[in-house]
């Protein structure tokens, strides 16, 4: 018990120390001043290659590469992962969810630290077929999130399938590896063809993705054991999630990257909290799996009930957070603002101004020391709780409904 508390405390203390040190030494700006000019130079010199690739412009290629980008996008995984939980492959689902959150945090941190531009448009032709792609275009370029996520998630999926089936056939392993390589290659080529990334962004996404995948394959069993049978799991993960919000670097100019991280940070917390409470009821290795004990009609029934339920929970958790967080903030004398969720707080501070913060309590002083702001955007907390509630319902509330409905 003491050793468990020790490593958890050391981990949280290490992150807290990093937040303080990086804030005092302005580490983000130091790294950016060294790396950004080099990356920007490669983005500019790589523009002729993008234009050369785009000379093969065709409506079919536009549709194919736009479709591939949607298939490996964050919204796709957000919709796909709940179905994976309900199919009975709980271990794969929770591992891919946590890996996705890790990739999203690491990739977006690097994007906002480097703050390197995307290819200039024009002369590059940029194709944004969906609202999600338009939002992606507002982020910085290096690394390519699509490439990074595809490397990690397709690589881990291949590892899981080969381990689960205990297949030792070299031809099958080679075929799986070839499919993953082709998928990654097409995604990278597609991001360049669509004008979303330069070659340096793709290389960065590939390199970082391989490094993250190698690290995850080394630690994923330890992470899974901790989640399903560890001690202080929910408390530790809540503290970790809170600190990661403050550890996130400040970009040169605001981008949607922090919003994406906040959402997946909430998803990871909701999944961990729910799994830790209900593992032995709904997520152990003996649960029915699709195409075996779980029939296709039953799975389709699960999907229908589950999707409707999580949409309702998402709406309710958002509404509850919009009501609770301003009340709590006012009680603690923490000035807040809202950029989108609460119009009446848009661009304003809800309570005492910064000159009164000097007389506030220790908690407020600590928070403002970390953030260097005179008010907090309450949208961050709302978004975190909204997606945490959604993820919790995927692994706790919805499986309970399946039991009552005998699905």
Automatic annotation (TrEMBL):
Record's keyword annotation contains Hydrolase: yes
GO molecular function: sphingosine-1-phosphate phosphatase activity
Main location: endoplasmic reticulum
Topology class, membrane: Multi-pass membrane protein
The entry's keywords: Endoplasmic reticulum, Hydrolase, Membrane, Transmembrane, Transmembrane helix
GO cellular component terms given for this protein: endoplasmic reticulum membrane
Residue ranges of every copy of the Phosphatidic acid phosphatase type 2/haloperoxidase domain listed in the record: 93-217
Presence of keyword Ligase: no
Transmembrane segments: 6-27, 34-51, 63-86, 170-193, 199-219, 226-248, 290-313
Cellular compartment(s): Endoplasmic reticulum membrane
CDD domains, sorted: PAP2_SPPase1 (cd03388)
Entry-linked SMART domains: acidPPc (SM00014)
Pfam families: PAP2 (PF01569)
Family of the protein in this entry: Belongs to the type 2 lipid phosphate phosphatase family.
The protein's name: Phosphatidic acid phosphatase type 2/haloperoxidase domain-containing protein
UniProt source species: Hevea brasiliensis (Para rubber tree)
């Amino acid at each position: 018990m003491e050793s468990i508390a020790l490593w958890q405390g050391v981990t949280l203390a290490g992150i807290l120390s990093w937040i303080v040190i990086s804030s005092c030494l302005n580490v983000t700006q130091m790294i950016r001043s060294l790396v950004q000019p080099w990356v920007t130079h490669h983005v500019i010199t790589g523009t002729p290659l993008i234009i050369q690739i785009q000379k093969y412009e065709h409506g079919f290629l536009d549709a194919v590469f736009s479709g591939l980008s949607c298939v490996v996008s964050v919204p796709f995984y957000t919709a796909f992962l709940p179905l994976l939980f309900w199919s009975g492959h709980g271990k794969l689902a929770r591992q891919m969810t946590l890996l996705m959150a890790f990739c999203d945090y690491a990739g977006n941190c690097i994007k906002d630290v480097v703050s390197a531009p995307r290819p200039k448009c024009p002369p590059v032709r940029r194709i944004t077929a969906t609202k999600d792609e338009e939002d992606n275009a507002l982020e910085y370029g290096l690394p390519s999130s699509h490439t990074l996520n595809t490397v990690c998630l397709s690589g881990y999926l291949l590892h899981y399938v080969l381990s689960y089936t205990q297949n030792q056939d070299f031809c099958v392993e080679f075929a799986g590896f070839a499919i993953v390589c082709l998928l990654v290659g097409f995604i990278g080529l597609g991001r360049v063809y669509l004008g979303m990334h330069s070659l340096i962004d793709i290389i960065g996404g590939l390199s970082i993705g391989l490094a993250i995948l190698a690290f995850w394959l080394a630690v994923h069993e330890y992470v899974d054991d901790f989640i399903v049978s560890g001690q202080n799991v929910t408390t530790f993960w809540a503290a970790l999630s809170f600190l990661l919000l403050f550890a996130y670097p400040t970009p040169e100019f605001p981008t949607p990257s922090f919003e994406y991280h906040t959402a997946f940070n909430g998803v990871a917390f909701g999944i961990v909290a729910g799994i830790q409470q209900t593992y032995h009821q709904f997520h152990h290795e003996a649960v029915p799996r699709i195409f075996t004990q779980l029939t296709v009609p039953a799975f389709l029934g699960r999907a229908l009930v589950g999707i409707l339920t999580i949409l309702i929970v998402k709406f309710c958790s958002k509404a509850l957070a919009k009501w609770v967080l301003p009340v709590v903030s006012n009680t603690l004398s923490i000035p807040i603002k809202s950029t989108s969720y609460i119009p009446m707080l848009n661009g304003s501070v809800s309570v005492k101004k910064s000159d009164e913060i000097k007389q506030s309590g220790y908690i407020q002083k600590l928070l403002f020391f970390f953030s260097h702001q005179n008010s907090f955007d309450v949208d961050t907390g709302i978004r975190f709780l909204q997606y945490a509630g959604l993820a919790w319902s995927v692994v706790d509330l919805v499986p309970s409904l399946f039991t009552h409905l005998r699905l």
